[in-house]
Amino acid sequence: MTTSNEGKIGINTAVTIGMKSMIGAGIFSTTSLLGSKIGPAGILAYLLAFAAVWFIAQSFARVAYLYPQEGSFYNYAKQAGGHTLGLMAAGSYLIGLLIAMGLLTKIAGMYVQAFFPEISLTTINILTVGLLIALNVFGMKLSSMGIYILLSLTMYAITMTSALCLSNFNIANLFPFMPYGFGSVMAGTKVAVFGLFGFESIASLFNIMKNPEQNVPKALRLTILFVGIIYFVFIGSILTGIPQEVFLLLPDITIPQTLMQVFPNHPWIIQSIAVSILFAIVGTIHAMLWSSSQFMLSYFKVLNIASINDYKPTSNTCVIIGGSIILFMCLTLTDIKTFFSLTDTFILFAFITTIIPLLKLKSEWKSGQNYITLMGLISALIIFAVAGEALVKNLITWFH
């Protein structure tokens, strides 16, 4: 492990990278569902998810420091369960990522259909994924400037939505606080945690960061804290500024539809929010399609896959495979809650298997680090169990 800091990034840059990874389209797909299925206590579900991610992230950063080799999830999980567990962890993370993009595609389709109601949602979804596959195959990836524009659009939507809702703040909107019981709050953690994924990008910065042992955990804490505050204000403003009955008007109501019910005199502001959210979601899918294809390519290399005539998978092949899986998920899964359950089940399995190796190290117990690891592991297991239980119930319902 090198000690030279020449040419390496500082903590401010790491926090910027982390915030760009965490602040994304996921928050727009969770808030209305929290309001409709949990009520004002959705903010409590978010806080529980935030605490869970806080401990998981600290543990993940520790694993990344101790095992800085290339390969992330595969390499980390391999330390505890060998090649097979490594493949399972990496494959699970990849599947969870693709399912999440299926959800975002469905949400994007709902926003597009609001502008073009004469076009069916299925047609919109097919055209959206087809276009994004074509853009990636032809090398039109999101530039650094494009990423900043994407973040700006996301922050614009968050800021304007928060401002509108805070202008209509009414403490009465928080009552009854927990209309569906504490069980709904626990179930809501699987939804709330969806918007907080992405912190793992910071843990991958160990080899290019100054004083990584101290600065990566610090960057993680700062990033999660900043993003947590932004999301808390966003979710809190919506739940305090919009009456509970508005969330019950439509089964899958979007944020602009919600705002239009309460602020009918601000159509242009709400339309600008809708456009910003739409471009933020589509831009996120576009960028994630490329990054997931690269992850898939590295996964195929680990598997040493070769098809007929020893053909080796390429980046474009992986883009097409990934895009096809995204479209399949989008068209097949009709219940948005199932998306959250599936995504959390696969991604949290990956996190759980990657931080388990820490429990085998005596040095981690002596230093006290493993007490944080245990908190991260317990937190991940609880949300994993909640998501898994909901998934089983959905499957039972589906088979009947």
Briefly, what is this?
This protein is mainly alpha-helical and 400 residues long. It is built from 16 helices and no strands.
How would you explain this protein's 3D organization?
Helix content is 74%, strand content 0%. With 400 residues, it is mainly alpha-helical. It has one domain (11-90, 137-267, 329-399): Amino acid/polyamine transporter I. Helix 3 runs antiparallel to helix 9, helix 11 packs antiparallel against helix 12 (267-303) and helix 14 runs antiparallel to helix 16 (369-399).
Features:
400 residues, Amino acid/polyamine transporter I, mainly alpha, globular
Query: Percent of residues in beta strands?
Result: under 5%
Biggest sheet layout: none
CATH class: Mainly Alpha
Number of strands: 0
| Helix fraction by DSSP (H/I, runs of at least 4) | over 70%
| Uncertain ranges | none
Q: From the helix content, strand content and strand pairing, which structural class follows?
A: mainly alpha
Shape: globular
Q: Return the average pLDDT rounded to an integer.
A: 90
CATH topology (level 3) name: Amino acid/polyamine transporter I
- Rg over CA atoms, rounded to whole Å, is 21 Å
First CA to last CA: what distance?
A: 56 Å
Helical segment count: 16
Question: Which CATH architecture is right?
Answer: Up-down Bundle
Order of SSEs, N→C?
HHHHHHHHHHHHHHHH
- The CATH homologous superfamily is called Amino acid/polyamine transporter I
Q: Can you tell me the number of structural domains?
A: 1
